[in-house]
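Hey team,

Sharing the BamA/TamA family outer membrane protein run so nobody has to redo it. Sequence (380 residues) first:
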Amino acid sequence: MVKYPFILGLAFASLFISHTAQAQLFPDRQQIDQWLVGLGGENSFDRSKTIDWGVLPGPFYTPELEFGVGIALVGLYQADSRPDSKISSLSLSGFGSSTGAFGMTFSNYTYLADDTWRFYLTGSLNNVPTNYWGEGYHEGRVKDHFGEYRSQELHLTPTLLRQIAQNTYIGLGWDYSNLQAAAPDAPFKAYMDKRDLPLRSTSSGLSLRFTYDSRDFLPNASQGQAFDISYTHYSPDTGSNNRFNATQMQYNYYYPLSDSAVLAFDNYARFTSGDVPWSQLSKLSNGHQMRGYYEGRYQDNHVFSTQLEYRQKLDWRHGIALWIGGGTLSDQARDLGQGHWLPSVGVGYRFEFKPRMNVRLDFGIGKESTGFYFQVGEAF
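Structure output:
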């Protein structure tokens, strides 16, 4: 996982600001709002702009990446000319560090023709030091990784969906990943050589996708539900090194407890079959599921995870989140759920930079593992 818990010092400080003379040591919320306006962080959506941008820069430090600078960029826009059309969103997060590491992730959700068509585009580009444990539960449960390399990866996933019934869509997509395991250390190189695995892996496949989605706002839903299933076939015919298949399923439900509180539920599963490359095994943990574990520590052909999250909007731009969840993995699909389960609990801080577009800082706790996450938008 990419861990860069930068910024929000001012936002955190504002949690403790009182209207006393001593509090003048800190800027008040009105001053912070004025500064954020200069960065495009008005707590409103300006429909007159082609894209209503906001940006949050700041320094960070992690043991893996050392010192660096990061940035979060959020844009809201309307792809239709109708004034009441659904608001589309674009978010980008990026960083560069003193170790030479850099990375960025982005996600775009565009609603067209009165939400008859939807275009999604997610992706990442990174060059970061990466730890490696191997494949399966027993390899991941070892506290210390055995290998290291520098992950240089480009990953793109565009999807075009067409509405066929109320809240129901089908469509086609493409999943492309090119990963180079650069600068491998001796143990990782020996592991790859012994299994005759290449250090560079390209996976490219066409996807068929079905979605039922009644959520009110995809990056930060307060009500509704969503069921999404996609099947991707990777083949040399589409530019892939290996021929294999991946099926991914996710179900989310959002129950509003009040105007400021939501209970969110998530089920996620991924299944692979065929000649699956080492870089395309199903990962149990990431910045969305099973927060608290190093991404890729637990990986196998098949994974399943579930989580329940309580989200509370506080005063001003503040919010908090609490979650509990669990997950499991297996080599054979028939064994999924019958082996070891891993826990995930955590707490998160939310800062509303644009209307209903949160910057989130999460701290997840797993079994003998913890992790910080800084991202734009909710985990699910």
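The chain has a mean pLDDT of 89.

Ping me if you want the raw files.
A.
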